[in-house]
Structure formats: C-alpha cells, structure tokens
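Quick check before the chapter quiz. The format below is the same one you will see on the exam, so make sure you can read both the input and the output lines.
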Amino acid sequence: MASSAVVLRRVVDRYAPPVLAVVVALAVQASGTGAIGVRTPLPVGLVLVLALASGGAAWVVRSRRWPLFVAAAVGWLVLAAWPAGVVASYQAGLRLRDRRRLAAYLAGATLVMAAGVLVGLAAGGPRRITTATPANAAAMAAWLVLFPLLAGLLVRSRRDVLAALRDRAERLEREQEERAERVRAEERARIAREMHDVVAHRVSLMVVQAGALEVTATDPAAVEAAALIRSTGRQALTDLREVLGVLRQRTPVAVRESEGDPLAEVNELVGESRAAGLPVTWWSEGAPRPLPATVARTVPRVVREALTNVRKHAPRAQTTVRLRYVPDGVEVAVRNGPPAAGADLPGTGADPSGTGPDLAAAGPGLPGAGLGLLGLRERVELLGGRLEAGPVDGGFEVRALIPVADPA
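Here is the expected output.
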C-alpha cells in the first residue's frame, strides 16, 4: 500500500505541471472565445497568445509564482478570462507562507478586481453586465480570489498537519530504537559481567590447578593430562575475553572484510582431540584458497562443536574430519562411528588403549544445554548455507555446506 502511494505521488509530481498548463491554456482560450466566459472582440491571435502565456506560467508555478500572477491579472483585465486567476489564487494560498506576501497578494488581487470593474464599465455590453454590476463583481471576486485562496490554505494546512504527524512518528520510532539499543547494551554488559565474574573465575581457577598438578605430579600421564587441561583452559580464557569484548561494545561490530584459511585452526582442533584420546583422522580435498572471514570462522566452529559432541557421547569412537573446497563454497563434515568396543560412557571407565589421557573417566558426563547444533545451524544458515546432522551407520555425522560468493 505504501509503495503504491509513493508511485502515485511520483506520477502526479511528474505529470501534474504539463497537465495543468494544458488545462489552463484551453480554459483561457475557451473563456476568451465565449465558450465559458465573455466573448472578446479582440483578435483571435491575441487570445491565443494570452492562452499560451497563461499555460506556460501555470507550468512553472512551482518554481516561479509571479508569471502566473501577472498572466492572471492581464487575462482578467484584457479578456475577462477567469481560469488563470482561479489557479493563481489557489497557488497563493498553497505556497505563500509569509503573511506579508499573502496580504500583498490580496491587495493586488483587490486592485485588479477594481480595475476590472472599471474596464467593464468602459467596455459595456455583456462584459459590463458580467463583471461591473455590484452583485456580479462581488460574485466574481469570491469565485476568482476568495474561494480558491481558502482552498489553497486548507490544503496547505492539511499537508502541514500530515508532515508534523509524520515527523512525530519518525521521531518516536528513532527514540524507540535508541531505547531498545540502550536496553540491549545494558543487557549485554550485564551478561558480560556475569560471565566474567563466574565463568572466567572458574576457568582461571581450573588453569591454576592444572598448572600446579603439572608441576607436582609424578605420573607422566597425569602430567600430560594437566598440561592439556591448562592449555585448553588458557585458550578458553582467550576466547572468552573476545566474547566479552563483543558483548561490552555498545554498537554492533562490523564484519571484517579480511580473508583467511581455516586449515590451521582445524588442524589444531584435531590435535587437541587426539591429545584427549579421540582417534581422529582428517584430510582436505580441493585446492585451498582464502575464504571470507565469516566463512573462515564458521568452518572451525562446526568442527569444534562436532568433535566436542563426539567426546561427550561417543568417547574413543573412530572419527573422520573432511574439509572439501568446492567451486562455489566449502564443505566440512565430521563423522564418527559407534563407541569403540570396551569404551565406557563418560564417567564410567578408564582408557585401555593407552592412546592418551582418558578425559571421560574424569568424572560425570559433560554438561550441555543441547543447543550447540541449533546455534550452529543458525550460524550456517545466516551465511546462506545448510547444516545436516543425524545418525549414520550406528554413529553420527555433522555436515555443513557454506557458499562463498564469487569475488568477480
């Protein structure tokens, strides 16, 4: 509906001036020849010239008003032609906002009407009867000046009211957006404080305890596990600081236009999972190429979430990570088989394979909100891609295809 109104307004703004010019010119011509006014004894050529001049003045009235006022006065005094005068009075009410200018127009119109009475008395005949008798002179003054002027003032007042209402609505909308942004900023700051006070403190304590265990432990396996916990905790603190920095910013962070390659980060994630005792193999297919920053950050997120879920729900299951560069994007898939024979669920057994520290035996199962894949799917879909996750041959597979726009 709003778009239709805008289109209609554009059409009116574009075609109204020439249409008005044609109507005024034809009406003045008809008035001078007696069709809708007093027939003049003047030559037809002069009538045509005045009609064309009145039409041209009506065409440019938006930028210059005085030509129409002059054409209206000349047309009334010479031909007793009223169309240009009606349009001039309406435009005066519509466009003359200064009271002094409006008063000057009324004074000029009164003088023209008075001069028209004198011309009618001098011309005699039908013109005297039409324009010079007291009743007809008053009626013509009301028809040419008063009524069109009031109509213009009414339309201008209505436009001013609508413009004021529109400005008020826009101001209220801006204030509402600013208020909502302040609320969001305050909520982000509160979340950042909570995360810093609770999560960061606990992770820092974990890192300190792991460092102390690494120094005091005598069992090589315990030292290795403590080192892994300490390095993972330090990386978690780094990631947490980045997240808190984003939350504390009052305005959204602009997406960086730099490009990157996720291979190194994926390789690091695989190495961490191997150190935690998860047998992971991975490879990439296709020619590696720089990816947009948003895509380069999302690919490791998919791998991280999938490997975390494997460690939670299928410890020591054979897992494969595949990164494939396709012509129009990048595909990443993480697939694990069923838990290995003799592998205990989290918190119920030890690591008989000796391939690494058994994090599953460290305590009860890892907590989770069950929203990791949901958030990951939303992140991938925001980039125009799709994410599929589900059971496959007794195991589980997470596969994401993320499109990359052609830089050309």
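If your answer matched, good. Strands lie at 259-260, 280-285, 291-292, 319-326, 329-336, 386-392, 395-403.
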